[in-house]
Write a structure and sequence with these properties.
Elements (H helix, E strand, L loop, with lengths): L1 H12 L1 H38 L4 E5 L10 E2 L2 H6 L4 E16 L2 E10 L9 E6 L9 E5 H7 L6 E4 L2 E11 L2 H4 L2 E4 H8 L4 E2 L1 E6 L5 H13 L11 E5 H7 L1 H35 L1 H9 L4 H34 L3 H4 L8 H27 L3 H6 L2
Helix pairs in contact: 1-11, 2-9, 2-11, 2-13, 9-13, 11-13
């Protein structure tokens, strides 16, 4: 305990430098935790949407990099329903469209569902009513989208400059669905000029003793269907795990999160090395006295590394708290609130703390080595 107190006093004596170092580490750790948590939570939200709906396979056009680029002829849906082992086929069209908000416009995710899509059963109408597929010009707004746009049931919404009446506001367990809207499939197809086309199809298979084998058989049967869609592309049926693994938007999000995090950590580590090297240089005489009164080199190393660990630990705690507050703040920003739920990923927090400790070791090893190599006699003569 006395040794820890000694280390703490060393840091408090240089409170301005210590505070700035803690702030630098907090920014690095906070940025990493926030970015990794956001990317993980988005992936988890997609996985949860498939899991709760019991989806076994996700079908897209073969060779496309994301679902927005997929194009499947709607006629293939009936062929899929006839495949042995298929219980439910749920086609859908997903588009990113321009929606008017006041004097400006924003991009919003719109989902086109046919009447038989099981996703209708998974959204809870909190205001108004559900869609009547015999009507035209009607949409459902997610709760977050309605709040961001300032719209209520009965209001008119301009989608691609076309007027639509908001007949209901829904709440979904899928965060990004709350930030978008739903309209009948046929209407969205006409609106975006993709008549007879869907971007993806969810497949639910029958229960079986060997479910994995049945899903594999259905997958092969789907991929053997004649090519359907623009450019006559074939079909690719993927398990939910493979779909999430290969989804380009998720890979880009995760890649960017790690890239920015790596840059922040490198900058934080360089700042830590600079702080500890300067600390050693300013305390050469002090270290010489400690060595003269019997401190072994190993104790000097522990002193420098201990100070580094204290700084990094304080910075990491501040950074994690800052990341939590930042993510909560982002849920209030209309541009992104429909894609995040404000929850933190425990894995991201643990990764942040783990990398912070690695920063402490990397940032403290060289200064500790330099301090331990000081000759007591030379150090005592140092001015």
């Amino acid at each position: 305990m006395r040794f820890v107190t000694f280390l703490t006093r060393n840091l408090v004596r240089r409170r301005t430098r210590s505070a700035l170092t803690v702030l630098g580490i907090a920014l690095a750790v906070g940025a990493m935790v926030a970015l990794l948590s956001l990317s993980r939570r988005f992936s988890e939200a997609m996985a949860e949407s498939f899991r709760q709906r019991g989806v076994d396979l996700v079908v897209m056009a073969r060779g496309v990099i994301d679902q927005l680029s997929s194009d499947i002829d709607e006629q293939v849906v009936e062929q899929m329903r006839k495949i042995p082992g298929v219980r439910t086929v749920a086609p859908g069209l997903v588009e990113l469209v321009e929606v008017q908000r006041g004097d400006s416009s924003i991009s919003m995710l719109v989902q086109g569902w046919p009447p038989e899509n099981f996703a209708h059963n998974d959204v809870r109408i909190v205001s108004g009513r559900t869609l009547d597929f015999s009507e035209h010009g009607k949409v459902l707004l997610g709760s977050v989208a309605a709040e961001n746009l300032g719209k209520h049931v009965g209001d008119t919404l301009l989608v691609l400059k076309q007027p639509f009446e908001v007949v209901g506001i829904y709440q979904s367990f899928v965060v990004y669905e709350n930030g978008g809207m739903v309209m009948p499939l046929k209407e969205l197809q006409e609106l975006v000029g993709r008549t007879g086309s869907v971007t993806g199809i969810s497949i639910v298979c029958d229960d079986a003793a060997d479910k994995e084998a049945l899903v594999q058989q259905v997958k092969e049967a789907i991929e053997a269907l004649p090519a359907a869609g623009r450019g006559r592309k074939g079909l690719s049926a993927m398990s939910v795990r493979d779909y999430l693994k290969n989804a380009i938007h998720l890979r880009i999000t995760q890649g960017m999160a790690w890239l920015v995090s790596a840059i922040a950590v490198i900058i934080g580590t360089i700042g830590m090395v600079n702080t500890m090297v300067m600390s050693v240089l300013e305390r050469v005489h002090e270290i010489g006295i400690l060595r003269a009164v019997g401190w072994p080199r190993s104790r000097v190393v522990r002193m420098v590394l201990g100070e580094t660990l204290i700084l990094v630990f304080c910075g990491a705690v501040v950074g994690v708290v800052g990341a939590i507050l930042l993510v909560q703040l982002l849920t209030q920003v209309p541009a992104v609130s429909g894609f995040i739920d404000g929850k933190m990923s425990p894995e991201a927090i643990l990764e942040g703390l783990g990398i912070a400790m690695l920063m402490a070791l990397v940032g403290g090893l060289y200064p500790a080595y330099r301090a331990a190599r000081l000759d007591p006699t030379e150090a005592l003569r140092h001015e």
